[in-house]
Amino acid sequence: MNVDRQIFSRHSGYLLVERPAGYEITYHSCVEGLTEITRHCDESGCRRVLIVGPGTDVKLSIKEIYKLGKHIGKQRLKIAIFESHGVTSEEMTFLETLVTCRGLPLRFFGNRQDATTWLMEDPWEI
Q: Is the pTM of this model over 0.70?
């Protein structure tokens, strides 16, 4: 199980979630991980999340990405993701669109600085 391998730390204005190399993304691990992220956000009162990770192993079908997008959309989080993974740009855009259409911002980034800058942009509050 991957959840215990994520490292959570509070930074000024956001929660940082660091995933180790080889972190495996399945639908089940995403739901568990999102539950843990939301718990940390609830405890800290922070709704902005930066997820980083080298060499993430994504094992999601399009149907699972759709279900995941619906689930993420219920969490009241702003999520920036900077990970290296094998997900296609179409799959990333699909997930971003699903979550955004549910009123919550989620974006993938090619570098950490752009992810952090976007994450901290105002206005965005729940």
A: yes
